[in-house]
């Protein structure tokens, strides 16, 4: 009897695995926390971040088409950039669905899910979008093409599940993310040296890992001094690897890593983890310099804190914060000291420090020529 029960259980388990495979449902850390989180950052970039950049360009260069109101919805006026930023929830959710390989009806239904979860998540909207979109995607895929009225069932389930979980968990996730972000920012204000090191190193490491530092910073609404330390850490990784590996990768590697992503080095890091030491040490130095000497703050979009020099988004975000602070009367003017701080923290120090540390590690044989060669 026991053997028959076990055999039946094994058969049921096999059927379930086949069904999940057929529906393209893969429950794994890689798919959720690498693929989905990375895609979410791209969705955020293509909405909130691009909207912020468009607004900044319009304001600074006095381009009337980019600064005037192009739409008024429920009494709220929107510029071109404002419309892009307002779509951040749907953009993130759709990007997550794309990474999870959702069929079309599920993917399109996530537009509504993303809007709801981002709106109800408040300051922690991106975190709420991530969890709710993953749940709605997988449950939507579960019923996809299993009935003859798929065009009704799949959107209804996906949107229904998404709205329900948005109502159920998005506000709590938003408050939790906001609380964590506030704790980090307050701690950085109180202990700028120690927290400057911690935030800079951790966010920088996250940027190089196959996860999204931008999504993490956005989810925690990381701004202020903590945001500045995050920018410093990301720049240390990107500029550090770009210049350390110049001998192997030349101009192409300099550009692809310096204004692309240091994630390109992950394969080499797996082969020789010691190549990661120089940029990490550099971030541990530039972080507290940013917080204690230059009081380098990210008062632009929180997502910019986790972008480093990728498309110079981090620097544009810092500059946007300066402009906003001046307009609000919080800051008198953008000074030469501000610009010197940005250039040193984002470009000069990461390059010099990483190369110096790399040279020292080469002398003791921990790093060898070719260790950072990109394919």
Notes on the protein architecture:
There is one protein chain. With 375 residues, the chain is mostly helical. The chain has helices spanning 2-22, 29-60, 64-67, 80-86, 88-99, 104-121, 125-143, 150-190, 192-208, 213-219, 224-244, 246-258, 266-271, 277-293, 313-328, 336-363, and strands spanning 71-73, 76-78. It has a two-stranded antiparallel ribbon. β1 (71-73) and β2 form a beta hairpin. The chain is globular. The model has no long low-confidence stretch (mean pLDDT 90).
Q: What's the quick description here?
A:
By secondary structure, the protein is mainly α. It has two domains: 16-171, no CATH class; 191-363, no CATH class. It has helices at residues 2-22, 29-60, 64-67, 80-86, 88-99, 104-121, 125-143, 150-190, 192-208, 213-219, 224-244, 246-258, 266-271, 277-293, 313-328, 336-363; strands at 71-73, 76-78.
Secondary structure layout:
Blueprint (H helix, E strand, L loop, with lengths): L1 H21 L6 H32 L3 H4 L3 E3 L2 E3 L1 H7 L1 H12 L4 H18 L3 H19 L6 H41 L1 H17 L4 H7 L4 H21 L1 H13 L7 H6 L5 H17 L19 H16 L7 H28 L12
Helix pairs in contact: 2-4, 2-5, 2-15, 5-6, 5-7, 6-7, 6-8, 7-8, 7-10, 8-9, 8-11, 9-10, 9-11, 9-14, 11-12, 11-14, 11-16, 14-16
